[in-house]
Amino acid sequence: MTNSDSQGIQFITQKNENCDELLSYLDGMQYPLNIVTPDMWQNHQTCDSSHVDLLYFPSNNPNSAFIKKIKSTKRESPLLYITNCSSLNTFDNELNFCDDFIYWPCSYKELTQRITRLMESDAIASKPAIDTIDIKQFAKMQLLGQSTAFLKTLRLVHQSSKYDSAVLIEGETGTGKELVARAVHYLGPRSTGPFIPVNCGAIPDNLFENEIFGHKRGAYTDAIHDQKGLVEQAEHGTLFLDEIETLSKKGQVVLLRFMQDKMYKPLGCKNYKSVDLRIVVASNQSLLEMVDCGEFRQDLYFRLNVLQIKIPPLRERDADIRLLAEYFLDKYKIIYQQPDKTFQKNILNNLLSYNWPGNVRELENCIHRGFITAIKNEVELDSVLLHSNNQNKKLNLIDYRALDNLDGSMIELKSQLVSQFENIYLKKLLEKTKGNITKAAKIAGKERRAFGKLLIKHAIDRNQFT
């Protein structure tokens, strides 16, 4: 425990309260913990919004005077009210003073989710905010989210759109790289020009120059008429090159030469032409790692990496999952004209317990599938639809079948195997230490906070091992 003023938890309770189990839960989290009495809180209330206040009063000793004081105080930090009150009617009148409430006892996972949500919303509030109008613009472009990680991405998108430099977008499959590219274009000064998307992986190597630069009639046997290249089609607009990591060595040389001065020569043409456009590229792999492995040209990487936007995977955006799920539900209500369909009550727990390797695209497919297979008007996203049980079983052993057909680059396959190793190692370590994070972190040679982040990354609940 610590009295640090860094981002953490401030636990407010009266003296002599028996809350050892609750404190044990809080101490097991990755946030610094500071314990204060109501009097201490009133006398030294922090204006630092980096804390989340947790107020614990049992139903038989609610301290009505202090609650009244909180209601009249302008707070800077979000407040979670923890009570063992069993009657909702008794509690209804007290809800207006807190940001969230929870009944004790509860599961470690539920408590962690509530605190993390408030911590993320608090961190957002402490940073320069994106204007409401910008948030609405992003929402119209199907870029929805309120998590710290995703709002950071939106800020970069907003800032990048103002300039005309090349943009490199990196993110896993299904995170929405083309949506981000479109936002960079349509929020910028070239919004009235065309947005031309190209999947580099779909263009054969021997046709790359023809597709990009076009050709004149008679340039080769089947060239029976002039054809504009993609760069000419993108004049005064944006050329978006998706899956840039699939570009061959020859294609990389061609693109590098073009980016030096935006000059090109269509096949069969004698003269060079110039074009006014912006280049935005996307990759589902780290181009820097590919440079280190000799798979991508370093000089081209530097040309492309003027402005870089990294899109976080959905597993790092817990605060966005419910928002996105509801958005997709509303979408399919309209498409299928079935406005009465709703989610099952325990939907959030089911969604948060899954790792989402396919990210937002997989979430949408899951909602779509659940909508179609729903019995009556209730959409259920249980383990059968999410395949979460099967996935967890597979992670008990490293799956080397990914190496059988070599379907992916070395970096991609290595990342998969490392992720599986981390998951197994963490679980085995928690089994050995019976869920003691401090001991497990010491054995792993990591700081306790960093070890806690790994558990969150792999959605591992230490209480399963206590």
Mean pLDDT: 78
Shape verdict:
elongated
Radius of gyration: 27 Å
SS class:
alpha/beta
Stated plainly, the CATH topology of the largest domain is called Rossmann fold
Percent of sequence in beta strands? 5-15%
> Can you count the beta strands?
16
Please name the fourth-level CATH homologous superfamily of the largest domain: P-loop containing nucleotide triphosphate hydrolases
- Briefly, what CATH class of the largest domain? Alpha Beta
The number of helices is 21
Largest sheet: 5 strands, parallel
Secondary structure: helix percent: 40-55%
Q: Spatial order of the strands in the main sheet? A: 2-1-3-4-5
What would you say the CATH architecture of the largest domain is?
A: 3-Layer(aba) Sandwich
Q: What's the domain count?
A: 4
Measured between the Cα atoms of the first and last residue, the distance is 21 Å
Ranges with pLDDT <50 over ≥5 residues? 1-6, 46-50, 86-93, 388-398
